[in-house]
Amino acid sequence: MRLRRRRAPIKGLARGVRTGEFGAPPAGLGALVRCADNRLEGSVSLTVQRFDLCIIGAGPAGFAAASRAWDLGKRVALVERGRVGGRGLTDGALSSKTLWHLSNDYARARRTDRGYRATDVTVSYEDVTAALREAIGEREADLERQLAHLAAPSAQGGSVTRFEGSARFTSPHAVEVTRGDGSVGAVEADHFLVATGSAPRVPPGVAVDGALVVTSDHVEHLPRFPESMVIVGAGVIGCEYATIFANFGRTRVSLIDRQPRILPFEDEDVAEAVSRNFERMGVHIHRESSLQSLEARDGRVRYVVCDREGKGCEPLDVERALVSIGRVPNTRGLGLEAAGVALDKNGGVVATDTRSSSPHVYAAGDVTSDTALVNVAELEGRHAAERMFGAPARRIPYEALSAIYFLAPEVAAVGINEQEARRRGVAYRVGVLSNRLIPRTVAMRATDGFVKLLVSRDEPARILGMRAVGPQAATTIQGIAFLIEKGGTLDDIDACVHPHPAITEGVQECARAILGRSVLKPAAFGPALLRVDAWAPGDP
Ligand SMILES: Cc1cc2nc3c(=O)[nH]c(=O)nc-3n(C[C@H](O)[C@H](O)[C@H](O)COP(=O)(O)OP(=O)(O)OC[C@H]3O[C@@H](n4cnc5c(N)ncnc54)[C@H](O)[C@@H]3O)c2cc1C
């Protein structure tokens, strides 16, 4: 490789060059330009700006870490190759939730069992996607505004300089940043945070073309509501898109599930409540099925689905296919070997309390191949920034993590469930109270679903986990998430005074049923409406 001396300024990598918007560019930042034959030309006297921290990826993990490092008075380089916000915003959490809410409102408007009959309720795909773009635009503008603020030095001297381009480690303390136009720059730092997120996993033999055969990266960019769609994979993301398309009522949705039931990581009662509703909504589930082939042919998608033994195969034809079988950490091409960072068998960064095998390199969010959630990514990003700069860092309460599944009905989860308790050999007591017995859900005419509380068998009984299935599920679990984090007990739930009518009263009644002092007695209603049970290792 021949490097030619070039003194003229080369296009800045930093958005900070737009003085006034992001502040002044880091002084002396050199850059190389990649030639058509892939050689690098550019400044040999490359004086590279050194930062306290270089963050790769401005998704929820990287963004939160940058903001926290700014608080701590650190000079931060934030490198992002795409749009700020990552999958927390586009083709991910916010975008899919916007679609879920819009589709829910539409489905509700078409209901005929609530005393009103709306006539001529129609849906326009163009208007739905315009609303989606508006939601993303609002949130993205907020993040840009925040970045503009972080570009200016904080009271403690912190600043965040943004670099557009794809980062790759060239040595333990340096990354090369390649922009879309081929120009290349370099950033050095004392510490690094790898926050590059994850990408959809594609099964071998399936060609994703982004048009007929798509992943979550493409499904929100279809030209219209497809008349039919097969979704490969019945995990959270697959089930969420099944709910969205079924709610809009313009797409015949089928789900291919290898397991006997959808949402295999959740208890059977949760999966059952969601499947029942899928069937009511016209979603067809190919249970215990394997996908033998799937290909785009003559402008349609032809797939063959068989039973688990590969027998009873059936060829089927749909307009589009959504492949949703999980995600893989984004570590390819990052040059992590140059920084001595070890990867696990999935290609995720091995991190202990956010620190990788290379002590100055940290990792947060989806790239670590543990829990893939926005709140976890943010927590880990903040935690990593605090740890690396010696600020007091609170332990990440992984046991009290909560999640929402945007299905029909909504499902929210915190802590462990029954199957996880059994897998770990943790003795428990459980109470399950149907929404049919909660005054607020009765008033809402939304009695599908339940609240389910899991507590330890020792005294006082510690709260192990909770599931809420039904309206306002996310809000319902929040108090329990707090109690788990604080080491709260069943008696704490019993003692707290709840407003009436609130769904959280159901949680309290459930707690009291486990304690044997509920107002409604299990024997009066039977296990379908109010169940109290216990399990210990050795029990069936
Ligand atoms: C369809 C969908 C729905 C979801 N819904 C929810 C939900 O409801 N609730 C929830 O909590 N979570 C949800 N998630 C998960 C959530 O979006 C992720 O867990 C979260 O975004 C992870 O944040 P992150 O910062 O680790 O990674 P990401 O958000 O993936 O961000 C990583 C960033 O790094 C950038 N990058 C990658 N490589 C490089 C490189 N070499 N150089 C420079 N930049 C790079 C990428 O462009 C990206 O912007 C959803 C995900 C999907 C796909």
Explain what this protein looks like in three dimensions.
With 540 residues, the protein is an alpha/beta fold. The strands form five sheets. Strands 1, 2, 3, 4, 5, 6, 7, 8 and 19 form a nine-stranded mixed beta sheet that branches. α1 packs parallel to α6. The chain is globular, with a radius of gyration of 26 Å. The N terminus is likely disordered. The protein binds flavin-adenine dinucleotide.
Low-pLDDT parts are: 1-47
Average pLDDT works out at 91
Share of β-strand residues: 25-35%
Largest sheet: 9 strands, mixed
Shape field: globular
Radius of gyration, Cα only, in angstroms? 26 Å
- Helix count equals 12
Could you give a short description of this structure?
The chain is built from twelve helices and 25 strands.
Question: What keyword list fits this structure?
Answer:
single chain, 540 residues, alpha/beta, nine-stranded mixed sheet, six-stranded antiparallel sheet, disordered N terminus, binds flavin-adenine dinucleotide
Note the topology:
Blueprint: E1 31-34, E2 40-42, E3 50-56, H1 60-71, E4 75-80, H2 93-109, H3 125-151, E5 159-164, E6 166-171, E7 174-178, E8 183-194, E9 198-200, E10 213-214, E11 228-232, H4 236-248, E12 252-256, H5 268-280, E13 284-286, E14 289-297, E15 300-307, E16 314-318, E17 320-323, E18 327-329, E19 361-363, H6 374-388, E20 402-405, E21 411-415, H7 418-424, E22 428-434, H8 439-444, E23 450-456, E24 463-469, H9 473-485, H10 490-495, H11 504-515, H12 522-525, E25 530-535
Parallel strand pairs: 3-4, 3-8, 4-5, 8-19, 10-17, 11-12, 11-17, 12-13
Antiparallel strand pairs: 1-2, 1-8, 6-7, 7-8, 9-18, 14-15, 15-16, 20-21, 21-24, 22-23, 22-25, 23-24
The structure holds flavin-adenine dinucleotide (FAD).
